């Protein structure tokens, strides 16, 4: 487990811009050293804010978009093109504006797609896609993502791993169908904690006052079943990117004094 590092920005706009700049640098560095990069996107307000900031950043042209693999941490299991689907929102915020290779955009299945309305089959299909993309050096059924981003919900959920639901207890499968999610829609598809932990870097995004309690709980030693965000960490780095409002309930010992 890599211990969480915290960066606290003044407000959510600055956080989104700084995180977008950080992501551009990560992708460019990975492409320079390995020829390609892989990023796992998150849904939600903070994830979409980051993508919009990236779309507006002139430095986005430093990325070779054709050599970037995009995956998703979770998806709301809805029909293709539904405005509530994470992929639909990501396309609007950024993806439609950059020259990605469509074969490298690994959206999670829709509820009117190849698996019909069977979220568990859709999850198994996505797990197969991940396994097929993994190299022998990845030591497992999931690629070693360069960066995996997770929005933190006000209830400490990450991806579609909600407190106490079976998905957060999963230790074998890399992707699961989620049923009875407390946040709509109730049916979702999600990476599990073991799949999340395959990433080199895990970035948790939390901006806004409604994330303050969740951040304080997850960073104060809570268990991952009760607070899924506490169980999300990367192989090399776990980074919490917060704004001042989301950091406002953190114990002083955790709050980095020199953040801007
Ligand atoms: O439903 C979801 O919610 C979380 C957090 O969203 P936010 O709007 O509270 O920031 C998100 O990370 C997840 O991908 C999404 O499906």
Automatic annotation (TrEMBL):
This is 6-phosphogluconolactonase. PANTHER family: 6-PHOSPHOGLUCONOLACTONASE. It comes from Streptomyces globisporus. It comes from the Bacteria. It catalyses: 6-phospho-D-glucono-1,5-lactone + H2O = 6-phospho-D-gluconate + H(+). InterPro entries: 6-phosphogluconolactonase_DevB, 6PGL, Glc/Gal-6P_isomerase, NagB/RpiA_transferase-like. The gene is pgl. Hydrolysis of 6-phosphogluconolactone to 6-phosphogluconate. One of its GO terms (molecular function) is 6-phosphogluconolactonase activity. Coiled coil: none annotated.
């Amino acid at each position: 487990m890599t211990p969480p590092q915290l960066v606290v920005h003044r407000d959510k706009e600055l956080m989104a811009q700084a995180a977008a700049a950080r992501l551009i640098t990560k992708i460019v560095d990975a492409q320079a050293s390995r020829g390609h990069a892989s990023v796992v996107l998150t849904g939600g307000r903070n994830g979409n804010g980051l993508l919009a900031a990236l779309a507006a950043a002139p430095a986005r042209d430093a990325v070779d978009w054709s050599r970037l693999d995009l995956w998703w941490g979770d998806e709301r299991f809805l029909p293709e093109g539904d405005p509530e689907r994470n992929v639909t929102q990501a396309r609007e915020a950024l993806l439609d504006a950059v020259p990605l290779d469509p074969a490298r955009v690994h959206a999670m299945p829709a509820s009117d797609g190849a698996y019909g309305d069977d979220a568990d089959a859709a999850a198994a299909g996505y797990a197969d896609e991940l396994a097929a993309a993994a190299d022998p050096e990845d030591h497992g059924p999931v690629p070693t993502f360069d960066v995996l981003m997770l929005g933190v919900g006000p209830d400490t959920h990450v991806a579609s791993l909600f407190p106490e639901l079976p998905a957060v207890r999963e230790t074998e499968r890399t992707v699961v169908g989620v049923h009875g999610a407390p946040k709509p829609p109730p049916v979702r598809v999600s990476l599990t904690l073991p799949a999340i932990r395959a990433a080199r870097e895990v970035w948790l995004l939390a901006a806004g006052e409604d994330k303050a309690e969740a951040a304080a709980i997850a960073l104060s030693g809570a268990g991952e079943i009760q607070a899924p965000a506490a169980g999300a960490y990367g192989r090399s780095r776990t980074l919490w990117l917060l704004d001042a409002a989301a950091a406002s309930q953190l114990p002083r010992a955790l709050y980095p004094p020199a953040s801007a």
